[in-house]
Design brief:
Elements (H helix, E strand, L loop, with lengths): L1 E6 L4 E11 L2 E11 L6 H19 L3 E5 L7 H20 L3 E5 L1 H9 L6 H11 L8 H21 L14
Parallel strand pairs: 1-4, 4-5
Antiparallel strand pairs: 1-2, 2-3
Helix pairs in contact: 1-2, 3-5, 4-5
Length: 173
């Protein structure tokens, strides 16, 4: 089973695709970032996120997707902008008809490092160790791989709580 992890951001969106080879073995397929045009209007950056993720999903054909759930932020404007970026990622996943799972930042860090308040550097080191990676990666890409890894570790539990089919929306004429 292939899983895409997504770490949305308003300037950089990270992604990582892993494959769950067995119940205890994960393989990294790809990872990277979608760098958004600095200074571009928000709607253009949101389109870049959607199109970039659509390309990754089309090329690697993940079976499921995982993303960090909404969290509280001190800066309202930043939180709203991040919410828009997250929404663009959600639209990309939904339009691909991939099942989506959400995990809190604490749950992701706890799954990957064993400590829910781990620093970004700790998460990056554990992701590299868990996936036997030697390549250099950005924090955004390592966060995306951590999210995918969290889903792979929690997959059995999550399957029982998620819906199984897409609903068709009927609009009144």
């Amino acid at each position: 089973m292939k899983i895409i992890g997504i770490d949305p951001g308003s300037t950089v969106t990270g992604y990582g695709v892993i494959e769950k080879v067995s119940s205890s073995s994960l393989k990294c397929i790809t990872f990277g970032v979608i760098r958004l045009k600095a200074g571009a209007p928000l709607y253009e950056r949101l389109l870049e996120i959607t199109e970039g993720l659509n390309e990754v999903i089309s090329e690697y054909k993940p079976d499921e997707a995982a993303i960090e759930s909404v969290f509280h932020a001190k800066n309202v404007k930043s939180a709203i902008t991040l919410g828009h970026a997250r929404g663009a990622a959600l639209v990309s996943v939904a339009s691909s008809r991939i099942k989506l799972y959400e995990y809190s930042p604490t749950e992701i860090k706890n799954t990957v490092t064993g400590f829910g308040r781990a620093e970004k550097l700790q998460v990056k080191k554990m992701v590299k160790a868990l996936l036997s990676l030697k390549a250099t990666m950005s924090s955004d890409a390592s966060d995306a791989l951590a999210i995918a890894n969290c889903h792979a570790s929690n997959n059995k539990k999550m399957r029982s709580t998620q819906g199984t089919s897409w609903r068709t929306v009927v609009r009144p004429s």
